[in-house]
Amino acid sequence: MKDSDTAAVRNNNPPGKSQSVPLDCCGGLNNVDYSEMDLTPMKELLKHIDFHDSSFCIAVIAIIFNPLFWNVVARWEHRTRRISRLFGSPYLACYCLGFVIILLNVYRSHSMTVAMKAQARWEVMDRTDVFYTGVAFMVVGTLLVVSSFLALGFTGTFLGDYFGILMDEKVTGFPFNIIENPMYWGSTANYLGLALIGASPVGLVLTAIVAVAYKVALSFEGPFTEQIYQERSQRHKHD
Q1: pLDDT above 90 covers what percent of the chain?
Q2: b vs e for 101-125, b when ≥16 Cβ sit within 10 Å of the residue's Cβ?
Q3: 153 labelled as ligand-binding?
Q4: What residue segments make up the domains of the chain, in order of their start?
Q5: Any binding-site annotation on 73?
Q6: Element containing residue 2 per DSSP (H, E)
Q7: Which residues form a coiled coil (predicted)?
Q8: Strand-pair partners of 23
């Protein structure tokens, strides 16, 4: 008997027939034993993080608060024009909100740095290759943030659309031709680089929270910004 025939008999299948593997309703293997997954690296990482540390909690609050703040304030301005009337100009109002956002982001970065310094380093990350990988992330992140700001300008970067300061056309040049929302993901790359350079497990967790916060913010910002430009297009058609 051939080896293939022996295998077929062992599996109670006729020769030449492959054994069918049961799939779940989503097309995945339903007999995968997830208990066999090696969670040791994740457990080791979490062992080096004190989730009850005050500096960690403050950093998390700053991370979540920032995009929530500028989205709520900008939408309120778009609906009421209160800030523009208060400052007498939509441009001045946008500059003031942008300055506040910059201060909030500086404080967020400071709070994350404090949390990283307050908690333990992880010897697994404390290596030369990890350090230089972190440097590379920070270089790329800075490039994305700076080039994005230069392409959009101050009002384009700091929600000028919500103040009625609309751009003539969509920006499609670098870095928008290689990645969507380069300002947000460049900032995330900077934080990831900082965590790697500092061999900081808590930095990795905080960076993940930054990414999630940005992802949630974009799910609201993207459609609302498109709505603003659609409204302008419809007004132009009526005119």
Answers
A1: 64
A2: beebeeebbebbbebbeebebbeeb
A3: no
A4: 55-226
A5: no
A6: none
A7: none
A8: 29
Task: Give the separation between CA 108 and CA 62, rounded to whole angstroms.
Answer: 5
Amino acid found at 167: M
38 in helix, strand or coil? coil
For residue 17, the SS3 value is coil
What pLDDT was estimated at residue 17? 45
Q: Is 141 annotated as a binding residue?
A: yes
User: 216: pLDDT confidence band, cut at 50, 70 and 90?
Assistant: very high
| 205 among annotated binding-site residues | no
- E-strand spans in the chain? none
Amino acid in the structure at residue 28 = G
166/153 Cα distance (integer angstroms): 12
CA 143 – CA 63 distance, rounded (Å): 22
Using CA atoms, how far residue 1 sits from 5, 15, 193, 195, in Å, is: 6, 10, 59, 60
Q: What is the DSSP code (8-state) at residue 37?
A: S
What does the pLDDT read at residue 132?
Answer: 97
3-state secondary structure of 23: strand
Count, residues in the chain: 239
139 assigned binding-site residue: yes
Q: Which residue has the tokens 């659609």?
A: 230
Which of helix, strand or coil describes residue 238? Answer: helix
Q: Name which of 144, 147, 150, 137 is nearest 190 in CA terms.
A: 137
Q: Phi/psi class of residue 2: alpha, beta or left (left: φ > 0; alpha: ψ in -120 to 50)?
A: beta
Each residue's pLDDT tens digit, 98-140: 999 999 999 999 999 999 999 989 888 999 999 999 999 999 9
Amino acid letter for position 211: A
168: amino acid identity, one letter: D
Of residues 200, 181, 39, 52, the one with CA closest to residue 116: 200
Look up residue 11 and give its amino acid.
N
